[in-house]
Amino acid sequence: MIWLVSFLSCIWLIGAEAPFNHFVHNPRVVGGHDATPNTWKWQVSLQYDSYGDGSYYHLCGGSIIDAFYIMTAAHCILSLQANQYRVVVGEYNLDKYEGSEQFIRVERIIVHPAWNEDLAKGNDIALLRLANPVQNNGYVEIANLPYPDQVLPHGFTCYITGWGLMDYYGSIPAILQVAPINVVEHEVCSGPNWWGSNALKTMVCAGGDGIISGCQGDSGGPLSCYTDGAWRVHGVVSYGPAGWCNQVTKPTVFTRVSAFEDWIYSIVQ
């Protein structure tokens, strides 16, 4: 993939599978379990049609942040042609149509202006403007965001959700997965035995226990944390270690949403 520059010899992109790979289309969180239906209502499946023939497959996760806007990772954007994407909200089992889903075309793609395809530089965030608004059918919800510049304390328990790979061998259950994952503060995550200088203050690290992590297919999805009396999306899944996803001292790294709210609100009116 185009983001695999030199520093990425030790990390991989969590989710943006090559567009010709139609076999790894619905993987899951490592160390997770089936989510309870109709719970993580802001979770989105971002789907991609690489050949322009209407054959969409799950590419990345995302979060509903407005009736017209989805938040995801910039590295999930394989093409700036909006008509190659759709989002599915109210999704649970990617292999079944359950009547809760809404399939909505993407009208416009807005990638953060400072994104330069280098994950170590951060700014891995993008917004998708939808052609039609998300309808409140009881299976969807607009995500709450954290307070601007809010930073979570070390050890705080959040939840990662998605359809990312379950393991190194590529197990691919179709049902949305969820797992509790503990925040690793910046002072620890940026240590030499952790992510070092690749961990920026505009990121959130979580996991690193060798058990629970995000994996390929989870990119762009939410890090949901219960703070200030509500569930809020504090992170956007960005990257993790190469090879085994759940490595000790190599936590999943998220774009820290609270560091980008001025930009988000400048677009989402």
Automatic annotation (TrEMBL):
Residues 29-269 form the Peptidase S1 domain. Residues 1-16 form the signal peptide. InterPro entries: Peptidase_S1_Elastase_sf, Peptidase_S1_PA, Peptidase_S1_PA_chymotrypsin, Peptidase_S1A, Trypsin_dom, TRYPSIN_HIS, TRYPSIN_SER. GO terms for biological process: proteolysis. The keyword Protease applies. GO terms for cellular component: extracellular space. Keywords: Disulfide bond, Hydrolase, Protease, Serine protease, Signal. GO terms for molecular function: serine-type endopeptidase activity. SMART domains: Tryp_SPc (SM00020). CDD domains: Tryp_SPc. This is Peptidase S1 domain-containing protein. It comes from Anabas testudineus. The lineage of its organism: Eukaryota, Metazoa, Chordata, Craniata, Vertebrata.
